[in-house]
Amino acid sequence: xxxxxxxxxxxxxxxxxxxxxxxxxxxxxxxxxxxxxxxxxxxxxxxxxxxxxxxxxxxxxxxxxxxxxxxxxxxxxxxxxxxxxxxxxxxxxxxxxxxxxxxxxxxxxxxxxxxxxxxxxxxxxxxxxxxxxxxxxx
Length: 138
Description:
Number of strands: 4
Radius of gyration: 25 Å
Distance between the termini: 76 Å
Mean pLDDT: 89
Strand content: 15-25%
Structural class: alpha+beta
């Protein structure tokens, strides 16, 4: 009677496989999270542009801009549609009567993104925190 070779994996082979998977996961997951946050940035940018357009309509009717986001036509919330950014409006250096600065600040899980704030001036100038390149890519 001859012994038949057993098939399967040894415990060492399984442990090496699990270790390799853990290392790959440790590298891949942070990259995935970073790209996921980057993919949510258009939520803030779109809201900034929508608020800027609403400010221009408000100015046409009232001959001044406003710092109250929800007072703008068509804007019902000071949070972006996806809930990733809070929107605020302030007067620019010459004051709210003639110019504005809109800021979209990352909130919740998006606050860990490399771009903390998108900033849009009434002149069309774009800024960001930490810098324009990181946030706007231009």
